[in-house]
Specification:
The structure is a homotetramer.
Chain A (H helix, E strand, L loop, with lengths): L1 H19 L6 H8 L3 H4 L6 H24 L5 H18 L1 H10 L5 H27 L8 H13 L1 H4 L8 H14 L4
The structure holds a DNA duplex (21 and 21 nucleotides).
Amino acid sequence: MSSNKQNEIALAAVKLFEQKGYRATSVQDIADAVGLQKGSLYHYIASKEDLLMQIAHQAILQFNEQLQSILDQDISARQKLELMIRTHLTMSIDNLETTTVLWREAFALGEGPQEVIARMSDEYLNLVTRILQEGVQSGEFHVTEPRVTALAILGACNWVYRWYQQTGSLTAEDISQIFSHLFLDGLLT
Amino acid sequence: MSSNKQNEIALAAVKLFEQKGYRATSVQDIADAVGLQKGSLYHYIASKEDLLMQIAHQAILQFNEQLQSILDQDISARQKLELMIRTHLTMSIDNLETTTVLWREAFALGEGPQEVIARMSDEYLNLVTRILQEGVQSGEFHVTEPRVTALAILGACNWVYRWYQQTGSLTAEDISQIFSHLFLDGLLT
Amino acid sequence: MSSNKQNEIALAAVKLFEQKGYRATSVQDIADAVGLQKGSLYHYIASKEDLLMQIAHQAILQFNEQLQSILDQDISARQKLELMIRTHLTMSIDNLETTTVLWREAFALGEGPQEVIARMSDEYLNLVTRILQEGVQSGEFHVTEPRVTALAILGACNWVYRWYQQTGSLTAEDISQIFSHLFLDGLLT
Amino acid sequence: MSSNKQNEIALAAVKLFEQKGYRATSVQDIADAVGLQKGSLYHYIASKEDLLMQIAHQAILQFNEQLQSILDQDISARQKLELMIRTHLTMSIDNLETTTVLWREAFALGEGPQEVIARMSDEYLNLVTRILQEGVQSGEFHVTEPRVTALAILGACNWVYRWYQQTGSLTAEDISQIFSHLFLDGLLT
DNA sequence: TATGAATGAGTGTTCATTCAT
DNA sequence: AATGAATGAACACTCATTCAT
């Protein structure tokens, strides 16, 4: 079935995009990686840009789906936030290459596709913001600007793709706990 | 004086790199922006990559210098952290284009230059970590993993280049207070 | 088959390199000569320099092979020398363009490739020197400095590419006899 | 006086042309070598090509003048030939850089200047040929094709620029004797 | 499905030369 | 005499994409 080949191509592309960047990766590089000729690749992909779009789209989609399912659960806001952080970091670190491509390379997309990714990222932000708002309403959290606070949390979590490789000893679980503690309790004694 | 022209070129390059990305910006684009022929540009720059390096290097240098001067002050760790956040965000937002180029485009640099920037970013991280450690020693902060915590704070602060443009109503000052509150006191009521 | 095209390209390149010189010949010139787009040429060649290298290498290789086969024959040193001169001149004149490129343009090669050609030329010199030494041992020749003498003979023979075109009436055979007579018997009556 | 500067420039150019070749030597290289700005060089030279022409022209002129003065002497043809060889090799080796530029780089000249050099080289050939003819008439030499024989001798002598550097132990005098012996007496015992 | 030849626009960079100061 | 900014054409080479086979 062709979906095997397509998947193989996507995997190779993710690896290459992560290593060299989207623009520095040639179609030839991808073809070499999967043992096809450059021309043959076009039986499986519409274009190099589309390939990147598929990767980025599927990645952000997964983030959104996971978070949505957390929001749907019947647990406290605090628990939702902790779960969100743990899930987000686990997913980021388990698929570090894909996550890197998502956050670092999606900018190379044309206006249209980029807009789609941006909208989905925005949706993700909305969901995080909603958790905070739930916490405020339930009296668990004290937040004056939930959107900016959500952006702070997301920034901290997403930045991980830039440093995790070097600090390899920590697990996603470890980091979640440190992050959760920081965001929930703060630094002050 | 030639430094005027060089500066003009750097400014134009920053703007273009921010808008289109480094790789999508051609030397021709930069030449057009400053009203020179493509070839004439090379009186002022060594290469397109070197131009990017200059921009990124000067940017990270400024971050480091500012933070170093904060560390040198005789104030509490808490005050240092607050000051660090305010200064970092102010600088990021006042020079949003440059900051964007630094964090988004430096990856396009070759191995050598990229390593230089990485080392300097690492130095910045060390300084933030040291603030946290000072706070622990003074009894102000409770931190188990100062490096990871510093990465969280930095991630939150650096992510700003990705969202500030759309949330234009907030000042750097506003955001610093929200961030400081979050990191110092946490979300919990 | 691609080897046809590759050969066609090499032939066109030889002709152009001989006429205008390697550096004055643009890749565009070669492309025009074979009716391809500039970019399409790169399906067949690795680089312009590599193209020159192929030409030069194949030329000097042929010289060496021919001379080696002469040395392997069971004939007198005098006969070997006469045969060497005849063969060398015949090959030079029959492939005057290639020979010209070899002796005139190989200097444009980068250090590595140039070294390879130099080493092979040196090997050729060694073979000629050996003929002279054989002649000395057999008592046929009187030579005090076989290497320098070989260089004299080779210089005379290789210089031909610089003047043959204008003196077109003489055949390689004619010239060989004149050269052989000069080197064997000398000018004196 | 400006002729000093001009001379300095010519000397630097010779050295560079010999090392890197005319085309690979930039005007900047020459300017650097004499401590001037690129633009300032044009107070002393008409063009890069003209600079090459001056060098080549002066070199071939000297060869011709020297040979002419030999022909004017009242000595035997044999002595003239020996003297020609000695003088030619001495000049070649004493000014190896200039000689190299003359024989290797003059081809880079445009049609007009190249023609001038070619005509002067031809004149040199004529003079050598005349020596041989004199020897035939005086009964000293046995030569059937004096022009081709002259070309053989010249080829051997001019080729020297290609190998002398590596065989540095031999003096011009040494080589002249070997060459003279070869051309006058031949190899045969 | 797979090939590989071909495209053609585009890339960063070099360079000899000019000229106002 | 000397500068150095500016030119503008030229250069080798790359690359995503197409398409006939």
